[in-house]
């Protein structure tokens, strides 16, 4: 299966090169990389272009708008979401794509490993995701309440994503992954694979505070889940 990796990027010149280097080492043989410059004012586009990947532009700010822009030019059977500071292991795609052998599977996600966070937070966060997120994902689908995905570590069946109208561009950031998971779960099963781990930066948690960010995430999670 061909995979289209979509990376929204706003002023990511400090991280995009390392992220793309990790992506280009993927063992999966068939993939394309689409960097969506979300109105950057730095050298994000220039760096991405120099590495031979596709660069498109979305001037309207918002992660979902950038992803939708990338989706519209993608050619893969599977669409993979990564953030511009993620560092996937070489077997990330290969491991994730295997799930789609089953036609019942419409989406696959996994945990974040905040590699530059405090070791205690890193361990606790990863354990929490592998246990609580995994359990919630199962129970939510059993009771038809949606599913659990983490926005920057997701693979989606492109055909199914198109059927639900693509990404919800009314959501600019918080709640985006929950909304996508909820809508995709109406079409098939969403897997939360505890072994599909992606390293990502804890920079936003550090700058805004992990407690504050957690409260915001929880609020938007239940806001989307409980919406009609």
Write the layout of secondary structure elements.
Blueprint: E1 3-9, H1 16-23, E2 31-37, H2 44-50, E3 54-57, H3 63-73, E4 78-82, E5 87-88, H4 92-97, E6 105-109, E7 112-114, H5 119-142, E8 153-157, H6 158-163, H7 176-184, E9 189-192, E10 198-200, H8 203-208, H9 210-225
Parallel strand pairs: 1-2, 1-4, 2-3, 6-9, 7-10
Antiparallel strand pairs: 4-8, 5-10, 6-8
Note the main attributes of this structure.
seven-stranded mixed β-sheet, Spore Coat Polysaccharide Biosynthesis Protein SpsA, Chain A, 10 strands, alpha/beta, 9 helices, three-stranded mixed β-sheet, 228 residues
CATH topology value: Spore Coat Polysaccharide Biosynthesis Protein SpsA, Chain A
Query: What is the strand content?
Result: 15-25%
Overall morphology:
globular
Largest sheet: 7 strands, mixed
Could you tell me the radius of gyration in angstroms?
A: 16 Å
Regions with pLDDT < 50 over 5+ consecutive residues? none
What does this protein look like?
There is one protein chain. With 228 residues, the chain is an alpha/beta fold. The chain has one domain: Spore Coat Polysaccharide Biosynthesis Protein SpsA, Chain A (Alpha-Beta Complex), CATH 3.90.550.10. It has helices spanning 16-23, 44-50, 63-73, 92-97, 119-142, 158-163, 176-184, 203-208, 210-225; strands at 3-9, 31-37, 54-57, 78-82, 87-88, 105-109, 112-114, 153-157, 189-192, 198-200. The strands form two sheets. It has a seven-stranded mixed β-sheet, sandwiched between helices. A three-stranded mixed β-sheet has the order 5-10-7. The chain is globular and about 45 Å long. It starts with a strand and ends with a helix. 45% of the residues are buried.
């Amino acid at each position: 299966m061909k995979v289209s990796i979509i990376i929204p990027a706003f002023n990511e010149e400090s991280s995009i090169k390392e992220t793309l280097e990790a992506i280009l080492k993927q063992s999966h043989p068939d993939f394309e990389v689409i960097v969506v410059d979300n109105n950057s004012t730095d050298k994000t586009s220039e760096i991405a272009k120099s590495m031979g990947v596709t660069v498109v532009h979305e001037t309207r700010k918002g992660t979902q708008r950038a992803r939708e822009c990338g989706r519209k030019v993608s050619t893969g059977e599977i669409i993979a979401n990564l953030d511009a500071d993620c560092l996937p292991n070489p077997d990330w795609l290969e491991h994730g794509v295997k799930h789609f052998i089953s036609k019942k599977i419409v989406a696959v996600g996994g945990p974040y490993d905040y590699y530059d966070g405090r070791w205690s937070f890193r361990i606790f966060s990863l354990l929490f995701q592998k246990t609580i997120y995994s359990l919630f994902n199962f129970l939510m689908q059993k009771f038809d309440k949606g599913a659990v995905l983490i926005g920057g570590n997701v693979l989606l069946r492109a055909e199914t994503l198109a059927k639900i109208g693509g990404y919800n561009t009314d959501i600019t950031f918080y709640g985006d992954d929950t909304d996508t998971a909820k809508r995709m779960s109406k079409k098939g099963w969403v897997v939360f694979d505890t072994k599909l781990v992606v390293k990502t930066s804890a920079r936003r948690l550090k700058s805004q505070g992990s407690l504050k960010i957690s409260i915001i995430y929880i609020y938007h999670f239940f806001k989307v889940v409980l919406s009609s």
